[in-house]
Amino acid sequence: MRGPLARLPVRLRLTLAFCLAMAVVLTALGAFLYTRMGTELTRAVDLDLRARAAATVSSLAQRERAPLDAGRGLIDPDESFGQVLTPHGDVVETTSAVAAAPMLPPGTTRTVTKPVFLSRHVVGIDDPARLLALPVRLPGTVAQPAVLVVGAPLGDRAQALDRLLLLLLIGGPLALAASSYAGWLLAGAALRPVERIRREAAAISETEPERRLTVPSTGDELARLAHTLNAMLARLQEALEREHRFIDTAGHELRTPLALLRAQLELATARPRDRTELEAAIRSAAAETDRLVGLAEDLLVLARTRQGRLPLRREPVSLPRLLTEAAEAFRARATADGSTITVESPGSREATANLDPVRLRQVLHNLLDNALRHSGPSGPGRITLGAEHADGVVHLCVHDQGQGLAPDMLAGPPPNPRPDAGSGGLGLAIVGTIAAAHGGRVSLANHPSGGALVTVSLPTASAQSGGAQRRSAAAGSRIGPAAVADERGAHRCGEGRGGCETDADADAEGHVHAEPVGQRGAERAGVEVRGSERGDGVEPGEVV
What we know:
Layout: H1 10-61, E1 81-85, E2 91-94, H2 106-109, E3 116-120, E4 129-136, E5 146-153, H3 155-203, H4 221-270, H5 275-306, E6 315-318, H6 319-329, H7 331-337, E7 340-344, E8 352-355, H8 357-373, E9 382-390, E10 393-399, H9 407-410, H10 422-437, E11 441-446, E12 452-459, H11 461-465, H12 467-475, H13 519-525, E13 541-543
Parallel strand pairs: 7-9
Antiparallel strand pairs: 1-2, 1-5, 3-4, 4-5, 6-8, 9-10, 10-12, 11-12, 11-13
Helix pairs in contact: 1-3, 4-5, 5-10, 6-8, 8-10
């Protein structure tokens, strides 16, 4: 609805529509009653005229068979009148209620060969009259039949119709007003629950996101509306909490490098420094600045994902070169920590995959950063970085020799990083976000020889639209927004095919097992837990 009516309240618009509909109905009903009343009154007059004509014909037949002189009177009833006319229009006999002038013109009398009704004005009668003309043979004559005309005034009919019209003109608007008021009340009663829902929704503030609307017990459209709005409020509450967690995480992650950067700058300016000390302070400040830049990029990835727009620029990527560049980027840091990074390249040195190289570098950098943070309880450790491209799926895996992953992370970390989770929680959230954007998944497990094993399975562009997706769906895999990898794809980097080779602790089929995680608890966490085919009760947890 457009125009001025669109700015009116819904209740008023409903009432106006109801009023308009009732006006049309009442007008049509009044017109029908008026027309029907007029028809019935005319029919009653016609029946009376037929009876009057029959009585007159009978009276004429009982008279002497001698010519009738003009002026001899017919029976003169109170509400009707009549004349007997010759075929030429001359008055043979008439009632006293009408003048001597013929009630029909000569041309009409010659055409009367059967009973016919006419409505016309008669001389001597004030109101319009209803006439019945029929041929009749006078006694004692053998000439052409005469014409008997019987009439009745229509004044009573007109008065009855006028009274009915007056009643309709008075009662119609009153009925319209009463029905419109009833429509106003009904519209108000129908919209009252909507107004209550509106007031309750207006009372919900950001400080009370857990409040919900009262659902009517009627089970009608309003109840469904309340359920829908409550579901929307639940989603908004979840989004609000997610944004709060995001802000808390951003503040937590940015606080440490900013504090270190400030401390380095204050230390450099606290007292005169020589060139070597200043260069060391600048290098330390530059390192913290790089860390800030990386954190800002990671937070931007999360923010764009929440807005539903994480762009991917797929292009052929050399997996060996990608692994080597990532290892070289962290080589100095690993050496300083006493750790080593080993790259296990795919079988083919020219192995390529159609993926986003920028996002893949972010994945590897976050995984290597987490591995270096947990490279060992108190000393150096080896970090193995590997990849495999098989069946249209690229598997990237990082294995460290740290303390491994906590059982709650194996059961499925929350989809959003927590402020108390540290950089590891944020890093894994970034990795999971990028994997989901590619249509892939992240798998977490604890290696039997110690340390954590993180596997990222990413389908190539051709695999997403081809048979790999169908094969994985048939295998029952459920991996984020697209089913890509097969049943063993999460750990294929541990099968000794050029990826992250496992030690002898892996089973004969190359499966790498995680710390035991209760199946029931994992199901409550909303993640899929796959058990070993050996049936030893050890289950890896998949972050879907």
